[in-house]
Amino acid sequence: MRFSDSPELEQWRAAVRGFVDANWRRPGDVTDFDEFNELEGDEARRQRWLDKLAENGWLAPAWPKKYGGADMSVLEQFVLSQELHRAGAPVSRQMLNLVGPTIMLHGTDEQKAEHLPPMLRGEVAWCQGFSEPGSGSDLASLQTRAVRDGDDYVVNGQKIWTSGAHKADWMFILVRTDPDAPKHRGISYLLLDMKSPGVSVRPLVNLADTHIFNEVFFEDVRVPARNRIGEENRGWYVGTTTLDFERSNIARAVQARKSVDRLAGYVRDRAKGGNPVSADYRIEVAERAVETSICELLSFEVVSVQARGGVPNMEASMNKMYGSELSQRLAYTEMHVTGMAGQYRRATGLAAEHRIQAASDYMTTVPATIAAGTSEIQRNIIATRGLGLPRG
Prior knowledge:
Elements: H1 7-23, H2 33-39, H3 43-56, H4 74-86, H5 96-106, H6 109-121, E1 126-129, E2 145-149, E3 152-159, E4 170-176, E5 187-193, E6 199-205, E7 211-224, E8 228-229, H7 235-247, H8 251-272, H9 279-307, H10 314-338, H11 349-353, H12 358-365, H13 375-386
Helix pairs in contact: 1-4, 4-8, 5-6, 5-7, 7-10, 8-9, 8-10, 9-10, 10-12, 10-13
């Protein structure tokens, strides 16, 4: 992996920055999309921006043009993603980067034609039906059943921690289709219409007092067999593709860099104002800066594997585990450095000028080491698939 752009990538990066400046930035803009979404609430602006990305094929840049992509190389896609995240611009529509690539790799031509274009146009919202009350870290123990009945599967069971299910039109779901098979080999991957009779959604409010998660219940829900992705009882291996994409994203490293830069600026301005941060906390900020550089290197490792034509697995787990744990350490450091000023939901004074919301960051990063696979699961993957250590 080279650490500087080739002349071609340098030109491409400049083109992306020009596009962002012309179509996204505006005077006084905030730098993080999460803050923009909360403070501005300008959904129309977000949709206009995403539509412009879609027109260029930039919502799914590595996809073929016939499905709405741009036929980009892995490195071109990496540069695009870096620059969009750095600008704080929306990068994708909900779940597009999870279920979309999975359908692209494992779906039939008919499934691609049916589902991919509406995803890119933002006409449908998706949610992920993986975790269950008794199957989170040990996902392969899931018990939601799907029984074949003619041209349909009949689904019964429950999913939990389902992000966005209350707004979703479709769910990509793992179900058990062979209860007698070894647990990894009796699972199938289905696309389920959330408007189907028998689907009910119950909200779960998180620690930050926001409604993102849900419980979803299935009672004799009929799913056409043509909505199965991949072979029956081989859905676990399709599902791991989705998880690898979820764990490979570079947003963690970019957001960590922006958080460290804001925090360092806050420390410098405190010193200029005659109220310096303690030496211990300055060292803590420096440690987070070093760790952020490591997180960036792990992102480079993921993209280098992809550029060689490989599929990141151990590398994706390393990226996910390190990045999610770093986000928590950064939130702790924000709490230490800003003190009482960072305890408000919307920070005041100098903390607000640097857009540091320590209390909010702290609460929202609590589930970071659980979502998309716990750190313990990631360590197991690194040990067995990366280091070749024996299982359990």
